[in-house]
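Researcher: Here's the sequence for the chain we discussed earlier.
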Amino acid sequence: MESPLLIEGIIDEIIIETLINHSQDKESVRNFKRSNEYINGLEHRKVYLNENLMIKESHCVRLTSRNSYVYNGFRTIEFTDEFSPESVIALQISLLPQIHQSVIDLREFLCQYSNSPSQFNQIIKK
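Model: Thanks. This is the structure I predict for it:
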């Protein structure tokens, strides 16, 4: 079993999820011939592409923790057996409310140093 993925933020959605399904036929891999004229690939492969999914609709991962704004712990994601090495998943994650507020406060604080009429700059000029 793979290690779970711990996320400190709110999982908004799965932006993209891609799975490649292939037959267990190893012969098609051995018989592959690269074309010099165009990009080709292996036969008997199916690509499943899903966009803008809720986490509960995913085939690759499952959420094993809460994902609400009031929950301050890590979001825990476990990978399913369908998540093979060639799979791709991209998540959209928002900051936790208290972290988001800290970022806003920090930006306001930094603006005081760059804003010439700020109280801080007036004190330094004296």
